[in-house]
Specification:
Rossmann fold; three-stranded antiparallel sheet; globular
Length: 250
């Protein structure tokens, strides 16, 4: 880590240490290593994780998703399974669900989005599905009106995800660094955006192989615009920058 990030991590850890009544980092490290329950490592990860996300981030991906679901509905595809691998506080999986609902409407009955993250704190916020007004600045008013309930909390305006969208999303804690993952059904699309930049090449290669395994033949992997599989040995086919497809036959 550079000095800026080191200072940021130190500051975040100091807050957790104050809650525990621990004064020195070495003492906290021993506390972390000796915790047999595993609860403190989860608290540690919640503290240091940076959850940067927004609704309809990198909108070209949602245009692609909408076109894809339109095609599948036209082909009478009945079951669609999507994984939002780094769901953070929920903006990405809910954006996926809204896009699916807009395109499929009443036919969205068997569309499900699995939303996972390493941070239990982020997942709790995602499950609640309540967002401050500034976080929806880039969301069209028509979408806010149709898919959110607006309420006032003190001086603040809060937007709550409507149940019809919430019901499309299932939340689960997964650490992407340690495949294989127990996902009972094969997937049609995986969104794994802006998270592999934090992994080394060994972890990235292992994760890409696992997502390949979990996808149906012809399924799609969508990564962040700043990411690429160029240096990773994989059978994924690059359709366009940041969008890959698993071949129908290998």
């Amino acid at each position: 880590m550079n000095e800026t990030k080191e200072a940021m991590v130190a500051s975040r850890l100091a807050k957790r240490m104050r809650i525990l009544g621990i004064k020195h980092y070495e003492e906290y490290l021993q506390f972390l290593l000796q915790d047999q329950s595993g609860d403190e490592i989860i608290n540690f990860l919640d503290v240091i994780a940076t959850n940067v996300t927004s609704f309809f981030r990198e909108p070209e991906h949602f245009d692609f998703l909408g076109d894809l679901i339109t095609t599948w509905i036209g082909q009478r595809k009945e079951r669609i399974r999507i994984w939002s691998a780094a769901a953070s506080t929920g903006q990405e999986p809910y954006s996926i669900a809204i896009t699916a609902f807009i395109v499929a409407g009443a036919q969205a009955k068997d569309i499900r989005i699995l939303a996972t993250d390493i941070s239990t704190k982020a997942l709790r916020a995602a499950q609640i599905g309540e967002y401050s007004s500034p976080t929806l600045d880039n969301v069209p008013d028509s979408i806010k009106a149709k898919f959110f309930v607006k309420k006032r909390v003190g001086e603040e305006t809060i937007y709550c995800i409507k149940e019809q969208i919430r019901n499309l999303v299932i939340f689960k804690r997964i650490n992407l660094a340690y495949p294989p993952f127990t996902i009972p059904q094969k997937l049609d699309i995986v969104f794994c955006r802006n998270v592999m930049i934090y992994f080394d090449s060994i972890v990235r290669t292992r994760l890409i192989a696992e997502m390949y395994r979990l996808l149906n033949p012809g399924g799609y992997l969508i990564v962040g615009h700043a990411e690429s599989l160029a240096c990773i040995k994989t059978d994924f086919i690059c359709l366009k920058p940041s969008i890959y497809q698993k071949p129908y036959k290998t």
